[in-house]
Amino acid sequence: MDRLWYGGDYNPEQWPSEVGEEDVHLMQRAGVTVATVGVFSWAKLEPADGRFEFGWLDDVLDRLHAGGIRVDLATATASPPPWLVLAHPDVLPVTEDGVRLSVGSRQHYSPSSATYRRYAGRLVRAIADRYGSHPAVEAWHVNNELGCHVHRDYSDESAAAFRRWLEARYGSVDALNEAWGTAFWAQAYGSFEEVMPPRTAPTFRNPTQLLDFDRFSSDAWLEVYRAEARILREVTPGVPITTNFMGFFKPIDYWSHAAEVDFVSDDHYVDPADPAAPVFAAMTRDLMRSLGGGRPWILMEQSTSAVNWRRRNAAKPPGMHRALSLQAVARGADGVMQFQWRQSAAGAEKFHSAMLPHVGEDSRVFRETVALGEELASLADLVGTRLSARVAILFDWDSWWALEQPATPAELSYVAIVLRWYTELWRRHLLVDFAKPDADLSAYAVVVAPATQVLSTAAQENLAGFVAGGGRLVAGYQTGVLDDRLHVLLGGYLGALRETFGIRIEEFAPPAEPSLSGGPVPALAIHGLGGGTAREWGEIVRIDDAEVLATFAGGMLDGLPAITRRRSGGGSAWYVATAPDDLASVVDAVLDGAEVEPALPHPVDGVEAVRRGNRLFLLNHTDQEIQAAGHRLPSRGAVVSPGD
Ligand code: GLA
Q1: CB count in 10 Å sphere of residue 496
Q2: Of all atoms in ligand 1, which is nearest to the CA of residue 39?
Q3: Does residue 562 sit in the same domain as residue 430?
Q4: Residue 644: is its pLDDT beyond 60?
Q5: How far is CA 428 from CA 153, 598, 610, in A?
Q6: How far apart are CA 238 and CA 137, in angstroms?
Q7: Whose CA is closest to 227, among 155, 342, 121, 143?
Q8: Is there an atom of ligand 1 within 6 Å of 301 CB?
Q9: Would you say 502 and 545 are in contact if contact means Cβ atoms under 8 Å apart?
Q10: Residue 608 catalytic?
């Protein structure tokens, strides 16, 4: 398409058919270019086993086409109809404590269910045969938010699939025993048949079993995608395929899923009440661009105002939706879509905002909808343009899963740790890519590895090679502690990177709240770079061959290294053994002299600057008017100006 995508989920099946004409007129007024159709239409498309009713959808597609609106056509497989579940209760997923979930909400199926796959496959083929060459169809929208509500399924059918997955991975049960370290707690298996998914158990389950079940479950969802995509590619090889991701979504390793879609798309719902929301949104946009290898992506869902699924649902203040939509475009999106076009009159989402609210056209939200459509039309020349970053943050689902397992030195949040580093780069208007630890890093001057706990041998060597080749690598605590079987990298952690950093880690010593008398987690003091207080983590670092840039002060860590650096050739390896409150100074020191180019030379509080194509996007996320780069930015306002 030579226009940006703009529109939303369109669910005309919730309305009498005469509303359809009005919808198209209002969509035209709003500058809608694409509608996502059919996401939850299975029960209407196939009201009884094998009886397909497409007439209503024919009308919808024809009407949209006549109105010049393209269609992102869903395969409608996200919610199996009640008749299917009644006839085949084996499609229902089972929780880790053995509860079989019921019909009556949505997405009630196991990704491993052969029955589900058979029925879904038949539906997808019928839809592809009927609409594959319909002139309105712009793309296929496979399923919807795979894994959204049912992250993992612990049914017997999943257990069997897990065993097959393990057999393919390990080849023999001896190899599995070795990888899982089953000598511990008498867990050794005599055959694959004895292996179970990590169902509810008396205490800590085997860590590698947990990790492999996370990997398996992510792959099971990928299999659901593949089964549909295979049919679509066979019937309509020319139509691009996507499935909507959910940003930093723990259950699915999006690196593997992204490799199989034609373009990445994402659903992102900011919490308007959270001051960190714009930064987290920016970070998510950067992840999406990175997942697609830098290709443009689509923001597939966001809300025009409040959602309905938080405890209290803040409305978006005027301007916020525009600023965050422009943010997505600035960070590489070729379109911004919303959930949904017309606000529902019934059902669990009737209190979720939409482009056309309950009250109708004469509303703030619809006026903002129209204005955004106009503005996006004026940015059409950006379609297809790419951005390039010189700074990367490693992001790794194995590390996420491992770091947040039970039985660790301290409960940590992987995404919160990543966000701290990202925020410092965002403030400096530096574009950030995310990268896998074993990815080609040669495009980057600086790579940050926050809590990248799991590093395979290949990843360790990759990072060592990055520094040897002149790169700046910054590792935070809990990086390189475990290999990809979750076995400890013995001898001071870090594996092949021990030489790169010139340190060994002797002992973890995170500050912790007293368990009997309670009280907050105490802060640590540090002297030197990033001096002041520090939180969350401390450890005993031993120097082999590195400079000490900061030390802990007081307590058992007194005088021990908190931040170290080892330079070699043109490269340098920084190690940060805690979370300094003044991370800004640390990041300044890392970036000093690095070949990186911020969109604006200096941070301005609450202002985000990004360059894409020939445009400079300046976004004011505060409720104050701000002057930046010679522009007056109204509160929650944005200016898009020719870049240079
Ligand atoms: C998800 C779903 C949509 C809708 C929205 C509500 O993104 O894909 O169908 O339920 O959440 O926020």
Answers
A1: 18
A2: 9
A3: yes
A4: no
A5: 43, 7, 10
A6: 11
A7: 121
A8: yes
A9: yes
A10: no
Domain extent for 613 = 607-642
Distance CA 533, CA 582 (A): 8
Q: How confident is the model at residue 231 (pLDDT cuts 50, 70, 90)?
A: very high
One-letter-per-residue 3-state SS of 501-521: HCEEEEEECCCCCCCCCCCCC
Reported as a single tens digit per residue, the pLDDT across 460-501 is 999 999 999 999 999 999 999 999 999 999 999 999 999 999
- Known catalytic membership, residue 145: yes
Q: Is 396 in the pocket of ligand 1 (CB under 6 A)?
A: no
Q: Check residue 620 and give its pLDDT.
A: 98
Same domain, 580 and 623: no
Question: Is there an atom of ligand 1 within 6 Å of 352 CB?
Answer: yes
Look up residue 483 and give its DSSP letter. -
Measured between alpha carbons, how far is 301 from 477 in angstroms, rounded to an integer? 35
Whether 528 and 408 map to the same domain: the answer is yes
Alpha carbon 416 to its chain centroid, in Å, reads 13
Kindly name the residue from 301, 375, 539, 608 that is annotated as catalytic.
301
339 touches ligand 1 (CB under 6 Å): yes
Residue ending a domain, among 209, 233, 251, is 209
So what's the pLDDT on residue 514? 87
Residues 310-352: pLDDT tens digits? 999 999 999 999 999 999 999 999 999 999 999 999 999 999 9
Which atom of ligand 1 approaches the CA of 308 most closely?
A: 12
CA angle 321, 323, 325 (to 5 degrees): 65
Q: In b/e form, how buried is each residue of 53-92, taking b as 16+ CB within 10 angstroms?
A: eeeebeebbebbbebebbbbbbbbbbbbbeebbeebebbb
Single out the residue of 495, 401, 428 nearest to residue 209, CA to CA.
401
